[in-house]
Amino acid sequence: MKQIEMAVIGAGPAGLGAAVEAAGHGVRVVVFDENNKPGGQLFKQIHKFFGSKEHLAGIRGFRIGAELLAQAAELDIDVKLGAVVYGLFSDRQIGIVHQGVKRLYQAEAILLATGAAENTLSFPGSTLPGVMSAGAAQTMANVHRVLPGKKVLMVGTGNVGLIVAYQLLQAGARVVALVDAAPRLGGYAVHAAKLRRAGVPLRLRHTIVEVRGKETVERAVVAEVDENFNPIKGSDEILSVDTVCLAVGLSPLTELAWMGGCRFKYLPGLGGHIPVHNQNMLTTSPGIYIAGDIAGVEEASTALEEGRLAGTAIAERLGYLSFEQAKVKKEAIRSRLDQLRTGPFGAKRKSLKETLVKEWI
Amino acid sequence: MVTGKDTGYSGTGRPSARRMESGPVAVIECIEEIPCNPCEGACPVGAIQVGQPLTNLPKLSEHKCTGCGICIAACPGLAIFNIDLSRGDETAIVAMPYEYLPLPKEGAAVTVTDRDGQPVGRGLVHSVKRMEKYDNTAIVSVEVKKELADIVRSIKEGEDGTEETNLPLRRDY
Ligand SMILES: Cc1cc2nc3c(=O)[nH]c(=O)nc-3n(C[C@H](O)[C@H](O)[C@H](O)COP(=O)(O)OP(=O)(O)OC[C@H]3O[C@@H](n4cnc5c(N)ncnc54)[C@H](O)[C@@H]3O)c2cc1C
Ligand code: SF4
Ligand code: SF4
Q1: How remote is the CA of residue B137 from the centroid of ligand 3, in Å?
Q2: How close is the Cα of B49 to the center of ligand 2, in Å?
Q3: Which residue range or ranges hold the 4Fe-4S ferredoxin-type domain (chain B) (predicted)?
Q4: Angle between the N-to-C axes of helices A323-340 and A300-317, in degrees from 0 to 180, rounded to the nearest 10
Q5: DSSP string spanning A205-217?
Q6: Cα atoms in the Cβ-side hemisphere of radius 13 Å centred on B82
Q7: ipTM, 2 dp
Q8: Which pTM does this prediction carry?
Q9: Which chain B residue is nearest to residue A196, measuring alpha carbons?
């Protein structure tokens, strides 16, 4: 069994942010990610981010990812790719399968930054090739440069649905429509405005009922829904599409936190069961920290800041920062997080996050 | 369905008609309180103010604004345009962020569309600006009939790039 100081699981913005922060203070960090490329969601995100300068606003997501990787390389952070963490055992032992070989590590501090998985929907025809998650379509288009289809129906008008629909337009697909069962747009109006300017219909109070096709998607049936989200009879409409993308929310990937004995709270507004954590991102299990979407689904910018917060707290825990030094740094990061959690979208998340912190004692 | 023919947004990001008549000026159509402020930092003359909290809507100081267009490419929401009504009685220039390929060609006639992507007429591509700091957001300016200046917010390119325009436009570029 190998001993390490700080283990980071997940090389997305949260994990990389924490690794860079902690390593910058002298902590020896090992990062594990199951993918063959680090960066988590960032490398699919070809759009410019919101926020302020401190949050790297106006910069395209993949450039933020590249910058984080460059910093990680400069700090000699050991990033192990193709490394699936399959278990978290007593005394902070972690089980890993790395390039086919099983290994056990023991860490003084662990950061779980595993992100979230996309939710799915089932309906007749939902198993036909051509029905996929929005994130999958985004990976195909932006990372592998393969157009998933030519005529796309997007289900969901949250930021993921809006952004991916726009990116599919940029990639050369036609987005036939976006549907959302809710009466209101889920994401930002400025993202929706880009689609509207391109003439893409956004249909609220509509859902997907069925997908038809012999071997792949050929048509999608959409219908209007009533207040209880049940399709209204006779409102069916058949759209000719070859791809159906589902952007119906994300659920935190919390298996390792369950194994680690962390206490949870169910908060649907943050994506489901979330590990309770304190202001330092510490869970109820000693030495196990969380950051990013696992700590409540938000955004890449909040994930990065939470990672930095956890990285600072871990550096303090391991004795690389004094209480006073850490305090100043943590305060600065928390105030940047607060800035991101304002306004009609952010304020709700902020109060939910505060609920989590209150539960921790 | 989200439609509705809005003719424009009111609010703190909108210059007066008088200011538009005096030359190009930014028109900020950012209407929702999101935590964001790159526009503020990008403006070289400090004509845009967001301040704290970050969710404040951007406020334009129309007399400071020189119409340089830098904020158009800096806005991640692609929510800023420039309008120039100073060209006389017939046409106006609308500058917009554009992130599709191929880019339109300068001098080409294009279909111009409104905020809902509906065609509202024809226009001439006046300029296509790309700069490294724009990071692949081009700024496309189109010349349109003056009464369309506050309606046109996008273009549709087709095979009709060479088609004759039905607008009374000067081809002076
Ligand atoms: C389509 C889309 C568009 C988005 N647009 C924006 C946007 O415009 N602005 C914004 O701020 N945010 C945006 N977000 C949200 C943002 O991507 C996420 O909030 C952010 O990536 C979360 O960061 P993270 O580090 O927590 O997780 P991730 O980026 O998901 O990274 C987690 C990593 O952990 C790895 N992992 C998980 N489990 C294991 C395991 N057991 N072993 C090893 N590795 C593991 C995963 O493979 C992944 O690489 C978007 C998200 C999506 C899906
Ligand atoms: S057009 Fe130029 S001067 Fe005017 S607000 Fe934008 S950046 Fe500032
Ligand atoms: S940069 Fe764009 S989206 Fe952000 S506040 Fe300014 S106008 Fe709004």
Answers
A1: 14
A2: 11
A3: 56-86
A4: 170
A5: TEEEEEEE-SSS-
A6: 27
A7: 0.91
A8: 0.93
A9: B116
